[in-house]
C-alpha cells in the first residue's frame, strides 16, 4: 500500500488479497522506541498482523499541564483488531520492519476516519487518517504530526504534506491561547479507572 496504490485500491474494494505495505518502519529499543503513524485499507485481527503484532497502539486521551506547558498524548495497546482506515501508531522496540505483508485481507472502501478523544484539562484531540497525500496548514499550532521519531507542527512558510496511509492530530480547545507552542510528548501505558497517570510508562518521543 502507498500513494501510488490509492486508485488501484478503489477498484479492489471487496476483494480479498495479499497486500504488501511498501514502507520501512525503523528499529527501536526498549529505551528508545521508534514511533510511526499508519492506517491500513483493510481490517486485520491482531493475531494475523504478523510483524505488527504487539506493536500497535491507539490514542486514548490527552492532557495539558499549563504550569509546565507540556502536552501529552497517551496511547494504549490495541489487542483485538486493526480497523480499516483508522489511524494508529506503531510502537516499535525491536528490529526494523520493511514492507510487511498482510495475507488474505479484504480491501475496504477508502474513507476518512477521524476519532476524537478528550483532553483531561479541557478540549479534544482528533486523530485523522490520510488516504492520499494530505497538505497541512503551514504554521498551524493546533495540528501535530509524528515524523523522524518526533512530534512536530507544520513549519511556517513551508508546504507540509502527510503521505498516504498515515495520520495527524488536531487540537480543539486544548491550548490556553491561539498560537501557544507547548512542549510535547507521547506515552504508552495501562488503562486505570483510578489514576491513569500513575500507571504510565513515560516514553518521550521528543520534547520541543
| Percent range for β-strand residues | 35-45%
Helix content: under 10%
Shape: globular
The side-by-side strand order for the widest beta sheet comes to: 3-8-5-6-18-19
What is the tally of helical segments?
Answer: 1
Main sheet characteristics: 6 strands, mixed
User: Which secondary-structure class do the elements indicate?
Assistant: mainly beta
Number of strands: 19
SSE series: HEEEEEEEEEEEEEEEEEEE
Q: Rounded to an integer, what's the Rg over CA atoms?
A: 17 Å
Mean pLDDT: 86
Report how far the terminal alpha carbons are from each other: 32 Å
Low-confidence segments, given as residue ranges, are 190-208
Brief characterization of the structure:
By secondary structure, the protein is mostly beta strands. Helix content is 2%, strand content 42%. It has one helix at residues 6-10; strands at 16-20, 24-25, 34-38, 44-45, 56-65, 70-77, 81-82, 88-92, 97-98, 101-106, 114-118, 124-129, 134-136, 143-147, 150-152, 160-162, 167-172, 183-189, 200-201.
What does this entry look like structurally?
The chain has 208 residues and is mostly beta strands. The chain has one helix and 19 strands. A six-stranded mixed β-sheet has the order 3-8-5-6-18-19, with no helix packed on it. A hairpin with a 5-residue loop joins strand 11 and strand 12. The C terminus is likely disordered.
